[in-house]
Amino acid sequence: MLGDLGAEVIKIEHPVRGDDTRAWGPPYAPYKPESGHEGPGESAYYLGVNRNKKSLALSFSSPSGIRVLHRLAQKCDVLVENYLPNSLSKYHLDYPSLSALNPDLIYASITGYGQTGPYSSRAGYDVMVEAEFGLMHITGERDGLPVKVGVAVTDLTTGLYASNAIMAALLGRETRRRVRREGGAGGEEALGQWLDLSLSDCQTATLANIASSCLVSGNPDTGRWGTAHHTSILLGGGNDRLFHILADCVSLPQLKSHPDYLTNALRVRHRDELESAISSATRTKTTAEWLGVFEGKGMPYAAVNDVQTALRHPHTRARNMVVEAEHGACGKLELVNTPMKFSNADVGLRSPPPTLGEHTDEVLAGLLGMQDGEIQELRKEGAVR
């Protein structure tokens, strides 16, 4: 997301295996024969989240690699890491060590369970956090077992929160700089800070109205509701006016005056009978026919599409949510684009996801001013690729 918005993002990868997700295939985008790369190609998983980044293949298990990272930390605005708490201190890459080198550094730590608390030393993955912090319990069919969401949604929401926090920290840093320039207080104050983002916190936050209902009522949640219908079209009668439109469209006008369905609270109380009546009515037509019935009626409705259909959907394409990229090693690729759109800025794809170590020389020479001989020495030591 930060890369989409124009940030120069340098991805630090292990010089031999790289980012773990490079191996999370199939499917792979195969390498072109003339690319010089070996192996099955670039994994679709990796390609999905690594556009607009430069790959620096560097090992910080060697003193030389640590020195390079220290120099980078002095030059950069933000460092993002997702190691277990205290794991980086032995390499002097923890926040206290790097903030001593660059007091203005924004240091963002993303972990499963945060820097504090009884679970802080645990490794955390999306599916475990979905289970432990409520999401799986409210996801699935009404009478079925708890299920995970189809994508790693807790990873995604944590990334969103992290990106937002980083932007706020950068804005706060610039604000304090301006105050300092204008002769305000805090002349010696460090402008950077440490951001503590965790999957568990972000999952708890995104329980949203369900969490609020539990806190206000003091009762357990109401469990799983699936999609609360049994058809391949979704209908939204979320208030009295929309419910009346829905009743007319499915040829059940009597529902509008039925004493059990006069208000939203009553409809919720009698939802089983109501859903059964609507579901029976919707079985009388195909999805395409129902889409025609609801067109222009002013109420929310939607077909239930598979992912490939969604990606080929005319609205998806009209909104430029799938873009073509020319990958140096794999050729033409289609990638999901950023959803952010600005009236006065061009954001989104600027460069395809990098191959492992593609930008090592560029970063070391261009950003740090290293000479070729110095870079080659690092390669001999195995510190970079």
Automatic annotation (TrEMBL):
Keyword Transferase: yes
InterPro entries cross-referenced by the UniProt entry: CoA-transferase_III_domain, CoA-Trfase_fam_III, CoA-Trfase_III_dom_1_sf
Keyword field contains Transferase: yes
SUPFAM superfamilies linked to this entry: CoA-transferase family III (CaiB/BaiF) (SSF89796)
GO cellular component entries: mitochondrion
Pfam families the UniProt entry points to: CoA_transf_3
Signal peptide, first to last residue: none
Gene3D superfamilies: Crotonobetainyl-coa:carnitine coa-transferase, domain 1 (3.40.50.10540)
Family: Belongs to the CoA-transferase III family.
Stated name of the protein: CoA-transferase family III
